[in-house]
Amino acid sequence: MARGAGAVALLSFLLALPILSVLVAGEDPYRFFTWNVTYGFIYPLGVKQQGILINGQFPGPQIEAVTNDNLVVNVFNSLNEPFLLSWNGIQQRRNSFEDGVAGTTCPIPPGGNFTYNLQAKDQIGTYFYFPSLAFHKAAGGFGGIRVLSRPRIPVPFPPPAADYTALIGDWYKTNHTDLRYMLDSGKALGFPDGLLINGRGWNGYTFTVQPGQTYRFRITNVGLATSLNFRIQGHTMKLVEVEGSHTVQSTYSSLDVHLGQSYSVLVTADQPGFDYGIVVSTRFTSKIISTAAVLHYTNSAGKAPGPMPGGPTTQIDWSLNQARTIRWNLTASGPRPNPQGSYHYGQVNTTRTIRLANSAATINGKQRYAVNRVSHVNPDTPLKLADYYKIPGVFSVGTISGSPASGGAYLQTSVMGADYRGYVEVVFENSENEVQSWHIDGYAFWVVGMNGGQWSPASRQIYNLRDGVSRYTVQVYPNAWTAIYMPLDNVGMWNVRAENWARQYLGQQFYLRVWTPSTSWRDEFPIPKNALLCGRAVGRRTRPL
After folding, report:
1. Which of 294, 292, 266, 264 is nearest to 279 (CA)?
2. Which of 73, 207, 420, 504 could form a cystine bridge with 33, CB 3.0-4.6 A?
3. Which residues, in sequence order, are bridge partners of residue 85?
4. Distance (Å, rounded) from C-alpha 82 to C-alpha 15?
5. What are the strands of the beta sheet with 436-440, ordered from one edge?
6. pLDDT in tens, 466-516
7. Predicted model pTM
8. Which one, of 320, 340, 108, lies nearest residue 240 by Cα?
9. CA-to-CA distance for 259 and 145, rounded, in angstroms?
């Protein structure tokens, strides 16, 4: 680990270098990034506040990659507190050590650095990175990731004139340290102060288009608390990709994008030459707030006539029905040339059913959130390190049940065991009056069903076992359920979490330990040579450099 003056000198040298892409004989290409994480003043809603910048940017730099690329990201932490980045949707095949969450990876200490070694193995699509600790996400530090198809792999639409990222999300004017203190004190955050598009408020960001050309927009909800609706004045959107899956190409006038979710749409500049509004507004909230960016035609005669487009507000059925129309494109290639539909997920017998019920609770006089009664508490040592080094007393497998139980919630380091090569049905059950958004690290899964009311085995009669979309984040509507199928083909310690960031911070998460007795590198990589060690793992050895 570099420290002090040596770290500063090294960082200055590395930041002066361009982003490098290197082809090593016999290996997939390498792309190298050097990032300096700092505090800086930002004004996203017109009020000065402390943000988290990467190389001076808010949001952070875009990562561009191609299927199977190796991504080497050297992160220097110039904050005054420990820091970690996680990579939403990048599956970290056989390598949960690099996942960048509290249960897998030691934080980068102030003044230190850590080099992530990632691979976009057998992946295409739209992803993002974000800071995973200490409610840092409320201050920035997030950015987009694009993983393009390899040149010889067919893509089911013509190349767009440009590929745009739209990071949308709610925002608080309060600094993240104060928001964190509120949560630690048992207080609610309250309603967000506004919405952002690529870190800017109302009409603060412009996307420029040429008349007659078609553009790809990658839309990701990087917010903390609210589902959002996305629409473009006078234009329709053709959905082509959801979180690494090519979809049936349906056309929409607006799209609901829940917390942590990503969509790719094609938009054709087929309207008269004006500046049109790109509108984002909150969903399922008592108060509706919105923001806008600008779709600027190069031959624009000024602001487009007519009102900004309205969107849905609190209608749950509208959103549920739209979600059911999002389906897998069975004939399109994914990251490999064979059609996505060649994997018949609905014809595989499941080996286990896991039912997960979220809940709100008061524990020791403070607000907490739980899964199957357990409100997760991070231990002093990352779970993955404790597992690797067989350190006793850090966690026990089975501390969370695989089905809901009656009784009050309680605090516990929450780890569920699962067998490698299993094929599980997971049912998310939401008896609360707010929409939930769930993410599973290390995996994509097929969304096979969602409906209102209580799930029962009879609910399987309405499952889509043919063309349900494969993705990594899924919504669960109020007083409703969502079911997924997931092959447990990735050994490791994987975070299962709420994407509502206050709920995640206050315990609505757990870790799924997918285990095999095999020690072969074909099943799981060993600990990285440069792994940081903390807690009870301090003093242990990794591997020779």
Report:
1. 292
2. 73
3. 131
4. 21
5. 415-419, 509-515, 492-498, 436-440, 473-476
6. 999 999 999 999 999 999 999 999 999 999 999 999 999 999 999 999 999
7. 0.95
8. 340
9. 16
